[in-house]
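Private note to self, pasted from the team thread so I don't lose it. Backbone tokens:
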């Protein structure tokens, strides 16, 4: 087999038809794009409903004495909403990324040069962008869990585990930033 591209006149008709059909199968990706964008929109609505519920509960109890436990409940609703928003962002980046990799560049997005989120040239760049947002989701989820069990920390050993967990998360974020600086790649969002 040769590495040179064959002109369509040099191909047999079976090879030409097979390759044409094979190339057209890339449009199956559109189903994943549509589903991921719809899922992201649904998550944005659910996250907004979570914030609305938190605000409603807060203002309903505003005239009453608001206890520390109610503040923690409000904070948990807000953190859950942020978590949903971040997962929605992951789905949007995934949808935009695979569309650009398999189908076509999104021309209208190229007009706005200040937004660099769609600068995805290969699967590794897409994976790196998604990994960064997933790490943020994990951090937010971690703090949500910490709020739920914060009253359970009664011994110094439990507090040490908590401190080590926060240190490990901070170290992970630091290493990601260091990796980005060493590679000289943007994080996908322009700095103003």
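Design output:
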């Amino acid at each position: 087999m040769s590495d040179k591209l064959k002109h369509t006149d040099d191909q047999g008709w079976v090879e030409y038809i097979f390759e044409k059909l094979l190339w057209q199968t890339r449009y199956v990706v559109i189903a994943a794009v549509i589903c991921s964008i719809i899922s992201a929109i649904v998550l944005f609505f659910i996250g907004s409903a979570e914030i609305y519920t938190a605000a409603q509960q807060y203002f309903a109890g505003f005239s009453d004495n608001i206890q520390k436990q109610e503040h923690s409940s409000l904070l948990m609703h807000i953190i859950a909403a942020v978590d949903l928003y971040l997962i929605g962002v992951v789905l949007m980046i995934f949808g935009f990324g695979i569309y650009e990799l398999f189908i076509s560049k999104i021309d209208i997005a190229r007009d706005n040069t200040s937004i660099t989120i769609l600068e995805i040239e290969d699967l590794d760049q897409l994976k790196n962008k998604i990994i960064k947002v997933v790490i943020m989701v994990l951090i937010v989820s971690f703090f949500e869990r910490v709020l739920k069990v914060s009253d359970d920390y009664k011994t110094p050993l439990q507090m040490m585990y908590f401190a080590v967990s926060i240190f490990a998360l901070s170290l992970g974020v630091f290493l990601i930033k260091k990796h980005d600086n060493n590679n000289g790649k943007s994080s996908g969002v322009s700095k103003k």
